[in-house]
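Dear support,

I submitted the protein below through the web form. The confirmation email said the job was done, but the results page showed an empty box. After a refresh the structure appeared. I'm attaching both so you can tell me whether what I see now is the final result or a partial one.
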Amino acid sequence: MENLNAAEREPLVGTEEVTIDEKGRVLVSKKKREALGSPFSVGIGVKGCLVAYTREAWQSLNAQLSSDDALDIGTDTLREIMYGEAETGIEFDPQGRFVVPLRQRRLLGLKGAALLIGAGNKLEIWSVAEYMKYKE
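What the results page shows now:
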């Protein structure tokens, strides 16, 4: 896959229905793969979904989390969740899939039907049931 810099990439937009197979693999459309770039990072988002971050978005998030007051319990808790549950250096296989780590799948109940929702510089990954609850 061609590695584009942030300025050359289109934003991640649109919603796709996908399946997370028994090995945790999820197929991502070519358009979303190009917008996400490779490698990318995956972590738990503040809305309770899994989030795949472009390299630049992950770096920006790191800068924000590092600049906040270390004595603020809310910030410290957010940092613990964001870093503790994150995986970095994730790449797509030749078929355009990546593996959602088992720990993250279990934590968020991700299996079977899922949604990939473009959110600019990140890609939200939701179980269909959890997304419907969130939307209510």
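Response: this is the final, complete result; the empty box was a page-load delay. The helical segments are 30-36, 55-67, 73-84, 102-108, 128-135.
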